[in-house]
Design a protein that fits this description.
Glutaconate Coenzyme A-transferase; 3 domains; 6-stranded parallel beta sheet; 23 helices
Amino acid sequence: MLGKTIVLGLPIGIGKAVHVADALFERAASDPSISLTIFTGLTLSPPQGKAGLESNFIGPLVDRLYADWPTPAYVEAIAAKKLPTNIKVREFYLRPGAYLDNDVAQQSYASINYSQVVDELIELGVNVVAQLVASEDTAPGKYSLSSNPEITLDLLPRLEARRSLGHAVAMVGQVNNQLPYMFGDAELDAGRFDFILDSPDCQFPLFGLPNRRVTQADYATGMHVASLIPDGGTLQLGIGSLSDAVAHCLRLRHDAPDIFTAVLDQLPGGTRSKNRLLLPVETAPFEKGLYASTEMLSDAVLALFQHGLIKRPADEQDETRIHGGFFIGSNAFYETLRKMPPERRRLINMTQISFVNTLFGDEARKRRQRQKARFVNETMMATLLGEAISDTLDDGRVVSGVGGQFDFVSMAHSLEDAHSIIMLRASRIKAGISRSNIRWSGGHATVPRHHRDIFVTEYGIAVTRGRTDMQVIDAMLQITDSAFQPALVAQAKDARKLVADYRIPHDASDNSSRAIRKVFDRDEVRSYFPEYPLGTDLTSAEQRLVPALEWLQSSTATAVSKLRTVFGAIFTSETASNRAALDRLGLDPAAGIGDRLRRKLVNYALTRTGK
């Protein structure tokens, strides 16, 4: 029916019809006369640890969480760098950091805004769409696009138009019994599908993303962002520990406003800072609540919905509390959706990407619903002049992708009383050396400086929209780690962007991890900021190992630090409280000197990072 030229569109994330994709891949791999192009984004596969302690930690975790996950055949071929010449795979969003050293993935990456993916698929000549769908006994004759209606709902009418012109196209659904049945726009009549694969042999669990540990620095950032979200407003929020921190801090603000206000007052860049007073400080509980219009429905957004903070109807005619494009999350996230009463699940409308990521089409309705919108996203690095570097390294290698970040930044500038809030960590440690994530310049910008608005680090907020270059540089310097401020000031002065007598304001002169610890280590505060505020799939031993292994990696990155760490480990006795974590890594002192030394090192790391 389709001939020998197949352009296969697969949804982003968990919605891929893996068995359908594998069958087409196998057919093309065995017949060089077939041309197969796969266009997709964020293909998921279990993590693989490097040799040593990382492998010891990740191996059992993968066995426990992903033993039944079917990694697509094209992923294995790309990883092995053995993709057949007649098969091409184009991704517009890569699994973060997974393909930095893979030539095939780097050369086939397509830099596209999420809202433009449908146009790209049409331009490529897509003729097959294959995705997971959900079914429910109470909805006979229907299937739900569930986790991934975002591209399909926009693409399907255009596919059907092509069919009416005589082109051969196919819409294929693969039923997965683990997918929550989502109502509203995600529901399609069975007749919209050309083929449905519904077999017990093709069932598999959804890919669960374990929630990451939320650090004190993450919480500081989350506090600043939470103080920018007005009651009755609109929220867009992503995934990761920074987003989890934001969600938890919003809950804290609602449940314990006195604690929230006190902590915000003490933080670097908090309410004692003159810089923070450039924008309204929101510390009150939520009465009207929030409405969410978000590209991704994540653990963070769902937690706010379950907690009763996301409760504002979209408008007087629409009871929807959340409009979302796609979802992905932890195993607990999927279970919560599956068990949610249908009447409550109906308040979540999974819909097309053109609705959530743009103002085009029914613009008056979107403007009416997206009151006081705050679009919260994350970036890897930023420049002093207000550029966001979110997806690409200086040398051109792609870490992840643009996704919908620019869509929301642009929308924030087009809506009344809206803001783009871009979060980043002020610094990172690479090869044992601390480096600033705020730089004078960067090789590639995801968000250009003429779209700058609000940046947030653990050290406060930088208000940059509509300001002069000198004002922007001053604002960004005030949320920079103090260790890097002098060098950055010198670069800005050399470029004639700062006056000769410029000095860092006193409010921002102690931007340090010590200042953050001083706030969160207090006994009366610590219990309000758990390491896994949205829950975790990790055991208690694994939760202890995460910070310990991170500390150990950093503390053995250089020859000098390694020698110091080994020396400390040798003279630190093993404690009973560390035994379960050490045993979890399979480190048997009777196995030889290698395991004995590694056990001592991990014991030392557990002791250093233990509460």
